[in-house]
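In response to the reviewer comment on reproducibility (Comment 2.3), we provide here a single inverse folding case reported in full, input and output, so that an independent group could reproduce the run without further information from us. The structure tokens appear first.
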């Protein structure tokens, strides 16, 4: 076989066996969801965390903050992709903080989340009780923790989402 044929064959094999994998996941398909559906989904998660901790969401405390999605390698796109950071406050008597954080940790683990942060005191200082978790498949991040006297912050962060019926930009 000639040197040119060997080089051509090597190039074809490289492309077939992994040359297309060189983008390190930059062009992996993004989950699709509208902003409205993402906010409703995040609100549902916050309400679920409140139920698990037997806390009450403070009326008008929920805030949805949408931002432009930036890729893990700093890439940005013009295809409408976004992330959502949703936060709500909930009332919870300080005497129930330990019980609440343990219940939430257990529920998140039962739902397949990986616990990435956990604290249950000791002390009366703010920020002594909380749990942070991420879902390995769906890549959402949730957290709950004490932020004021008898008050918790419940947060849900989405991964990068692409609006439905939008063509994903490639890099």
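Designed residues, in position order:
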């Amino acid at each position: 076989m000639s040197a040119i044929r060997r080089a051509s064959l090597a190039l074809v094999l490289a492309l077939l066996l992994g040359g297309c994998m060189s983008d390190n996941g930059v062009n992996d398909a993004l989950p699709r969801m509208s902003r409205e559906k993402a906010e409703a989904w995040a609100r549902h998660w916050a309400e679920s965390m409140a139920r698990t901790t037997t806390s009450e969401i403070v009326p008008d405390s929920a805030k949805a903050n949408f931002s432009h999605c930036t890729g893990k390698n700093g890439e940005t796109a013009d295809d409408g992709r976004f992330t959502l950071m949703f936060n709500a406050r909930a009332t919870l008597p300080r005497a129930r903080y330990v019980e609440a954080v343990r219940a939430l940790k257990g529920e998140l683990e039962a739902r397949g989340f990986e616990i990435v942060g956990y604290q249950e005191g000791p002390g009366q200082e703010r920020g002594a009780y909380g749990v942070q978790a991420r879902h390995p498949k769906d890549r959402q991040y949730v957290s709950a923790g004490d932020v004021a006297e008898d008050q918790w912050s419940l947060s849900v962060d989405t991964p990068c989402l692409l609006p439905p019926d939008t063509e994903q930009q490639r890099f």
